Amino acid sequence: MKKLFILLFSFLTISANAVAAEGGEFKPGDMITHHIADDYTWHFADGVVLYLPVILIDNGQPQVFSSSNFYNENHELVPYNGYVLDHGHIYRADASGQPAADQSSLLDFSITKNVASLFISVALLLVVFFTIAGSYAKGKGRAPKGIQSFFEPIIIFIRDEIAKANIGPKYERYMPYLLTIFFFIWFNNLLGLMPGGANLTGNIAVTLVLATMTLLITVFSGNKSYWSHIFATPGVPTWLAPIMIPVELIGILTKPFSLMVRLFANITAGHIIILSLFSLIFIFESIFVAPLSVAFAIFMFFLELFVALLQAYIFTLLSAMYFGGAVEEHDHVGDHGHGDGAH
Amino acid sequence: MELVTPGIGLIFWQLVTFIIVLFLLSKFAWKPIMNALHERETSIENALSAAEKAKLEMQGLKAENEKLLAEARMERDKILKEASDAGNALIETAKQKANEEGSRMIAQARESIENEKRAAITEVKNMAAVLSVDIAERILRKELSNPQAQQELAKDYIKEVTLN
Q1: Which of B4, B5, B18 sits opposite A209 (nearest CB)?
Q2: Please, is A86 exposed, middle or buried when counting C-beta atoms within 10 Å of its C-beta (0-12, 13-18, 19+)?
Q3: How much is the pTM?
Q4: Which residues form a coiled coil (chain B) (predicted)?
């Protein structure tokens, strides 16, 4: 998939440059970046725009206003109330309406497109799983029905194949977290694929938070043997400790870092590929490219539907493996040479 | 670079929302769901093991029934055999008894016939004796009715006596 991506992207850049040299207006790079980046408005279709609220903390003073204030009647960006929206960010404006030099202690907590999408997905999660919990309470001990029978095998799969298999007997503690991240990531991946959907799981802030949660749970559930493998790896001479301890400490951080980057990159890449395929039509400015582009895009879309599930599974599985490593009771006899390095 | 720079706003909202969702789902969804699943699995397992147990019990009962049936059959055969034996023995004894009685009666009859015969013979003998004496008397009377005859007889006797 990566190779395909690189291939397509190189092809795309060459074509884009060619178009730019001819003085064309369409810039696929900007279009794609705009689509996968966060925004202060939710652009469903031409003319159907939802202006989301802007929340700023300026020197501890909260400022709340609609993002529509940044646009005039011609959809041009204008400064508002001493703030200016420039390249997808809000800055303090100077007298000329340009971003000022001093931007210290200006925090942006706006309900952006991604935040709004987050709320929608969370509402969906709550509705779906409260409904399912309700049907479990109603049909006690009976076979699952409807939506319940769709999710039950997935829940059982997460419990048996992910949690039980990787964490061991203490798996039950981690079930709520594993189930929540699995469905959170999956639902948001799918919502991101919907037309007009936000690229939430392809945003580094979201994956950062998820990966940090996994890191914190791993660190706080680490038992004696987990820490002893980090600070006194069995089978390693003591004089190597100055090298081993930093390496192991970096190892703690690289695991969630890889989680963060993997999810972000996979989802973003999928969006970029599909958008690039559609861009081809406009780059060549020919309707005859369309069938090929659409065929490829449909193929990619199905692949992305699969990737949406796969990435949720991988994130959950790896989190479970890290938890498993943290709570595992090591048998120190004969355990030399394969400590946490195996992970 | 824009893409890989996490924004503080989204981090904040994601963190807050995710923790709330994690809490809500754990408490109101995952807990009842996991409990229900566990309960159902336990109940299914119990039901299966109970069915298995019942099956084994049934098999045991069936075997026991068969054993009982076989025993009853054997008992019946034994009783029948005994009864027929007893009947045969009874018939045998009765036959023997009848035979014995018959032969005894025959012997008795024979004896009484013999006795009667003997008595009859004796009577005949006696009668014959009486008759002969009678006849002899009558003859004697007739012979001695005239004096000549008496004389002749007396002479005969005398002759005999003399001769002797």
Answers
A1: B18
A2: middle
A3: 0.74
A4: 44-82
